[in-house]
Amino acid sequence: MASNEFTILAPGSPGVMGWAGRSGQLAGTGLGTQCVHGGAAPDPAYGAVAAPIYETSTFALLDICTSAGFEYTRSGNPTRARLEEAIALLEGGCGAICTSSGMSAVLAVISLLEHGSHVLCPMDCYGGTFRTLEHARRVHGLETTFLDMTDPEAVRAAIQPNTRLIWAETPSNPLLRLLDLAALARVAQRQDILLAVDNTFLSPVLQRPLDWGADLVFHSTTKYLNGHSDVVGGAVVAAQGRRDLLQRLATLNMSLGTSQSPHDCALVLRGLKTLHLRMRAHESNARALAGFLAAHPAVAKVNYPGLPGHPQHALALRQQTGFGAMLSFELKDGSPASVRKVLRALRWFTLAESLGGVESLVAQPASMSHASMTAEMRERIGIRDGLIRLSVGIEDQADLIEDLRQALES
Amino acid sequence: MKTGLSKETLVLHTGNEIDQQFGALSMPIYQVSTFLQDVHGNTKGYEYSRSGNPTRDALEKAFAVLEHGKRGLAFGSGLAAISAVFMCFSSGDHFIVSNVVYGGTFRLLTKILNRMGMTVSFVDTSDLGAVEAAVTPQTKAVFVETPTNPMMAVSDIRAIAAICRKGGFRLVVDNTFMTPYWQNPLLLGADIVVHSATKYLGGHSDVLAGLVVTATEELGEEVHFSQKAMGGVLGPQDSWLLMRGFKTLAVRMEQHERNANVLAQWLGTQPGIEKVFYPGLASHPQHRLAKEQAGGFGGMISFELVTPELAEHFLSRLKLISLAISLGGVESLICLPAKTTHASFPPELLRSLGINDRLVRFSVGIENVAELQEDIEQAMANQ
Predict the structure, then answer these.
(1) Biggest alpha carbon distance in chain A?
(2) Fewer Cβ neighbours under 10 Å: the N or C end of chain A?
(3) Is the same domain home to B33 and B174?
């Protein structure tokens, strides 16, 4: 820096600045640093601070059977590779695949299994997962037992000789029941069964299932990871010791054609940069709202693991680093007219499917996310018509509480 | 929109975020150049994307709400926004401008607008007497950057607005460093606010954009004419990305500032660092004013090292903090203003303003603050 003259080097020239050594040190850094810098090494060509979007279908080969690592975007794309690196870093895995929706990530996971395999799945799993597993029963010969997995002993008892996968969702949607991941991992390990955990509700900021012994972590990145309600996407992360699974998942993503577009990958990567701040704001609002609802006379019951009265509050404290921002509650008057009145009166909570965006959303699970379940199954699980689910956004806390108050008292 | 809404809620719900046709929670991107008309020239409000585009319009309306103004206008860069504002004036008009202004604004005024017969006096706008003394019969506007880049001097917006009202000329404030989250110049009496939205408003170092908000509809019409006539508009895709940035403005600005407050205090205790410029420090000459006119002190810090050699050693050894121009992104950036952002200033002027080759400008990111400290410590060591 002896003069004001800038030197222009050829694109791709190695940098001499300290940032060049950054990538090797990311694994040991704190969460906030990982959110900002995961998959975000300065572009080696020109040093662009934001990752370039490689909006291309194919790549010019450098020679016969020679590439710089990418040949065709369905099988691999530099922008998607950055997102996969970032999500794997945050979850503490050896690698990840990113898919065009959460459901296509579910498809990739169940496609790991041979025809005739048996799966254990929580009976209150996400409605879309339920539908896909039921479809796989007919089409792929996959047999699924839906059961209450809060008791690890019941899970052990349900294992059959052909059981190959335990699918866990914790906290569950929409009742916020927790599963003991360490206990499930012990059951799975003893029998050589894969444990896959849907971590959509908490994100790696609040829970890292691989640390508890899971083999795979699943995400609908549509939700908190992207966080802005503007991308549909999914991801599967493989544990450190499971490079074999990662390789098979990557092949499946390529073969099934489920890989995520470069542009959407860039948007999710952008979302990850504020994940730590968003989760903090989401959770602090959710805690306040849960407390408010629990004390409100029109509310019969609040499902939120952060409340001391939640039956698995102690497990939440042990297994999670926070309680998240999803909660559900039941109105004392659960009649259709009463539910409709509350839903219509809300101003800042938008009635919409999905969750995990910066804006607060409200849903009636019985008529929306869990409509693909039979009424009888919903009743068995406890999803009543008067149950309202909130995805608490990052608006001002007082505005949200006031909104709930006026809607409940309307 | 309901007034008095808290700023955390306002950044998410300006009333422009939901698609009117299908209820999409994210504003559609109208990637289109032109719009159908009937034979009489009737349209549904848009005829050509340079004069108006639904996505850009949503951004402009949302931002006008955030800055508490009447009209928002979006441009392809911060300098396009500033140019469009100055182009509302005429040959022979005189401006009073902060002496430590962004280098690009300085270049615009001294290399381009001067050729059009506009004249400028650069004064220390943190000194109200200096502002008043610079007024001439031709003065048409005062242009203030506060805090200044990179010296972090704070100007009294309310007091300068009073001078402007008395003299019958406009007050333009560059609010890039603070954003409407911390500072609302229009509420303090300014007529026009300009932004390089590339910085905190976009916030992710992936969009180049500029924004203008005016206090009145009439001024908005003037700037819109200049936008339409000169054509420096922002594209629909970038307009959408910018709105996406607004959604996390509250959480980002809070974290930027939390980190900057910790680092500003701490940097002052480090060997090898001579001086720290940050309005949040009690020792800052305009600390009280900054506290009074803004809700926070922001995420920009400048500091002076003891020697130019140490500055060079320090910058080249940083690992987490990247040496790059620009600021306001989630990732920490650092630069030497004398060689980069302010290189368009004559050397003797730089010296007189205190922008020397030991002065480092630090855009504090939202990383873990302890790791930023560690990075700085290791880069200062082993001389």
Answers:
(1) 77
(2) C
(3) yes
Q: Per the domain annotation, does B366 fall within a domain?
A: yes
The amino acid occupying position A236 is V
CATH topology for the A275-408 domain: Aspartate Aminotransferase, domain 1 (3.90.1150)
Of A98, A117, A131, A108, residue with least CA distance to A225: A98
Are B72 and B24 part of one and the same domain? Answer: yes
| B241 and B143 inside one domain | yes
Angle at B308 between CA B305 and CA B313, to 5 degrees: 85
Q: Which of B200, B231, B246 marks a domain boundary? A: B246
pLDDT (0 to 100) of residue A373: 77
Give me the percent of chain A exceeding a pLDDT of 70: 99
CA A305 to CA A201: how far, in whole Å? 12
Pairwise CA distance, residues B281 & B176, whole Å:
20
Q: CB atoms < 10 A from the CB of A160, how many?
A: 12
* Predicted confidence (pLDDT) at residue A41 exceeds the cutoff of 80: yes
Active site residue A126: yes
For A396, the closest of B9, B254, B365 (CB atoms) is B9
CA-to-CA dists, residue B370 to A170, A241, B324, angstroms: 31, 31, 21
Q: Does B371 touch chain A (CB under 8 A)?
A: yes
Q: Which tokens sit at B354?
A: 């205190």
Residues B260, B237 within the same domain: no
Yes or no: is domain A78-272 CATH 3.50.80.10?
Answer: no
Chain-chain contact of A19 with B248 (C-beta, under 8 angstroms): no
Q: Which of B1, B5, B7, B9 to mutate to test the interface with A (most CBs of A within 10 A)?
A: B9
- The chain-wide mean pLDDT, for chain A, equals 93
Residue A4: the pLDDT is: 58
Of A30, A36, A393, the CB nearest to B365: A36
Query: How far away is chain B from the Cα of A322, in angstroms, using its nearest Cα?
Result: 18
Portion of chain B with pLDDT greater than 70, in percent: 98
Domains of chain A, residue spans? 78-272, 275-408
Q: Answer positive or negative: Cα dihedral of B203, B209, B212, B217.
A: negative
The whole domain housing B288 covers: 250-380
Specify if B1 maps to a domain. no
- Distance from the Cα of B371 to chain A's closest Cα (Å) equals 8
What is the band of B3 on the pLDDT scale with cuts at 50, 70, 90? low
pLDDT at A142 over 50: yes
> Residue B2 falls within a domain, yes or no?
no
Alpha helices (runs of H) in A43-197, residue ranges in sequence order:
78-91, 102-110, 127-139, 152-158, 181-191
- What are the pLDDT digits (tens) for B246-276? 999 999 999 999 999 999 999 999 999 999 9
Catalytic residues of B: 50, 102, 174, 199
User: Is the per-residue pLDDT at B154 higher than 70?
Assistant: yes
CA of B20 to nearest chain A CA: how many angstroms apart?
14
**Cβ-Cβ contacts under 8 Å, B199 against chain A:** none
* Chain A residues touching residue B373 (CB < 8 angstroms): none
Which residues 315-344 on chain B approach chain A with CB closer than 8 angstroms?
315-320, 322-324, 326, 329-331, 333, 336, 339, 343
Co-location of B237 and B256 in the same domain: no
CA B224 – CA B218 distance, rounded (Å): 10
Inter-chain CB proximity A18 and B319 less than 8 Å: yes
Of A11-20, A347-356, B22-31, which one has max mean pLDDT?
A347-356
Say what the pLDDT of residue A371 is. 82
State yes or no: is A224 an active-site residue.
no
CATH number of the domain residue B89 falls in:
3.40.640.10
Chosen for mutation from A6, A33, A289 (greatest number of chain B CBs closer than 10 Å) is A33
* Contact yes or no for A18 and B318 at CB 8 A: yes
Highest mean pLDDT among A99-103, B16-20, B191-195: B191-195
Q: Are A329 and A175 in contact (CB under 8 A)?
A: no
pLDDT band at A48 (very low <50, low <70, confident <90, very high): confident
Of B204, B254, B255, the CB nearest to A50: B204
Residue B284 domain-assigned?
Answer: yes
Q: What is the percent of chain B with per-residue pLDDT over 90, rounded to a whole number?
A: 79
Q: Which residue of A has its CA nearest to B331?
A: A36
At B263, which CATH number? 3.90.1150.10
Residues B221 and B327 in one domain: no
Q: pLDDT tens digit string along B215-241?
A: 999 999 999 999 998 888 999 999 999
Nearest chain A residue to B249 by CA: give it: A274
Domain identity same for B202 and B73: yes
At residue A207, does pLDDT exceed 90?
A: yes
